[in-house]
Amino acid sequence: MTAPVQAVIFDLDGTLVDSDRALVEAFVRCGIPAEAVTFGHVITDECARLGIALHDYIAAYDARDVQPFAGVDDALRKVERWAVASHKDRDMGRAELNAFGWSPEVAYFAQDFDGAKRLDVVLDVLGLGGDDVVFVGDTAHDRFAARDAGVRFVAAGWNARCDIRDGDLVAWRPEDVLEYLGR
Ligand SMILES: [Mg+2]
Question: Cys-Cys crosslink for 29: which of 6, 60, 75, 125, Cβ 3.0 to 4.6 Å?
Answer without folding.
Answer: 60
